[in-house]
Amino acid sequence: MITVRFLPQDQSVQAHGGDTLLDCALDHGISLPHICGGNCSCTSCHVYILQGIQNLSPVEEPEEYRLSTARNLQENSRLACQAILIGGDVTVYIIGETDEWKM
Ligand code: FES
To answer: Among 30, 40, 43, which residue's Cα sits nearest to residue 92?
Structure first.
């Protein structure tokens, strides 16, 4: 099992390899915006990966393009609906609508 810690609520949950971060959050009742329903056509599920970015599937198209349109893009940005757990623990920061948080 993989442990995924979601901030800022600081909730840790168990997940399976092959799940997306969005699946993982929703399966455990954690609020994570997903306006397009996980189809990679919005940026509402934009998150920052604070630890374990190597434990996620690499960024590929169409995520790469969609992510490039996200506000406050950082090197550790991912779209939660496209980032798949491939093994090892991950810490994720869910960006709020008015969140000015930066690394
Ligand atoms: S939910 Fe829209 S891109 Fe992830």
So the answer is: 30
pLDDT single digits (tens) 56-71: 999 999 999 999 999 9
36 CA from centroid of ligand 1 (Å): 5
CATH of the domain at 86: 3.10.20.30
**pLDDT over 90 for what percent of the chain?**
92
Enclosing domain of residue 21: 2-94
Claim: this prediction has a pTM higher than 0.85 = yes
Residues with a CB atom less than 6 Å from ligand 1: 34-36, 38, 40-42, 44-45, 66, 79, 81
Instruction: Look at the chain and report how many structural domains it folds into.
Output: 1
